[in-house]
């Protein structure tokens, strides 16, 4: 087991990003099925090493091979050469270092960067904090926890007027009664 970061809930500005999880085994030669949170799904294979975390334990492993398999992704990790060994990884979160992510362009954000930001209306009323986001197909939605839960469409320039990562704020043109 390699030394890795502690198993705690991380915020957007910390150094870990949960990119997926090991969902099962694939074949008999140590491959695993991966449930990827990246878009497209196979992008998870471009990040190596992976920190596999389960409970309070973690280990750092290199991805030796991987590919899209149907609607999912499969991967082979160094040191795992049979089905039984690979089965021990099932359920582990796949964590990558934040520094492994590509830089974003102007007006582009990783979801992990938005989680934990405070959401204010244009007149300064605090609506709460971004808990997580939802993909709806039409647009992403901020799930804001405050005095009540609010679902706010992440539509830049219309609903979301400003994102300030340095100050930890998102300004929205949103009626607080919604």
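^ structure tokens above, recovered residues below v
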């Amino acid at each position: 087991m390699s030394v890795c970061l502690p198993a705690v809930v991380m915020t957007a500005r910390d150094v870990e990003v949960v990119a997926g999880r090991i969902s099962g085994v694939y074949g008999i030669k140590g491959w695993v099925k991966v449930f990827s949170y990246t878009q497209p799904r196979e992008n998870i294979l471009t990040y190596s090493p992976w920190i596999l975390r389960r409970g309070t334990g973690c280990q750092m492993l290199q991805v030796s091979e991987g590919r899209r398999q149907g609607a999912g992704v499969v991967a082979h990790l160094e040191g795992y050469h049979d089905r039984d060994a690979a089965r021990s990884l099932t359920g582990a979160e796949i964590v990558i270092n934040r520094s492994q992510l590509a830089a974003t362009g102007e007006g582009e954000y990783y979801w992990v960067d938005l989680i934990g930001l405070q959401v204010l209306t244009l007149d300064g009323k605090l609506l709460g904090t971004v808990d997580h986001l939802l993909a709806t197909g039409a647009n992403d939605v901020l799930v804001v926890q405050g005095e009540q839960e609010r679902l706010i469409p992440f539509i830049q320039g219309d609903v979301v007027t400003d994102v300030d990562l340095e100050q930890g704020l998102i300004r929205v043109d949103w009626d607080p009664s919604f």
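Residues 83-87 form the longest helix (5 residues).
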